[in-house]
């Protein structure tokens, strides 16, 4: 039950902190390092970062500050960190394809729903019998790759629809 409470707190943390990260780059005078962790434009890719970065920070808080001990912790949190952006993309482009346009209220709801699902899936994995601990290094590596990928593509975005800012038509940090 204790782990479930922290996963629910994680939903709140990720949702609130992710929402604040939407504005952090401009609040911090477009400082390049802030751009590595927050949205630098209105592209889908940059909005995915708003969930991934807080999810990884929450993982660190859970493990180091709150000293959460749960079965399969790193595996569970890695699955959640990967699942959230996948769900956001799936839900966002599904409803946008159906409606032909997007609505901010639905976009925010999708963000929160994806975070809820990611955290609950993480919790479910943590309630399973203990997996082999020998793969913990792999889960840490996969989390690092995920975070570094978001950082890298902020500064060197692909010219692909996920990375295109629908307002300016630009990619990455727009002058």
If you had to describe this structure to a student in words, what would you say it looks like?
It contains six helices and no strands. With 175 residues, the chain is an all-alpha fold. It has one domain (2-163). Helix 4 (73-99) runs antiparallel to helix 5 (104-126). The longest helix has 27 residues, at 73-99. The N and C termini lie far apart (48 Å).
Mean pLDDT: 94
- The overall number of domains is 1
> How do the SSEs run, as a string of H and E?
HHHHHH
Helices, by number, come to 6
Helix content range: over 70%
Overall form: globular
For the termini, the CA-CA separation is 48 Å
Radius of gyration: 16 Å
Quaternary state reads single chain
Strand content: under 5%
Structural class: mainly alpha
Provide the descriptors you would attach to this structure in a database record:
single chain; about 180 residues; mainly alpha; 6 helices; about 0% strand
Summarize the structure.
Helices cover 71% and strands 0% of the residues.
SSE layout and pairing:
Blueprint: H1 2-27, H2 32-37, H3 44-65, H4 73-99, H5 104-126, H6 136-155
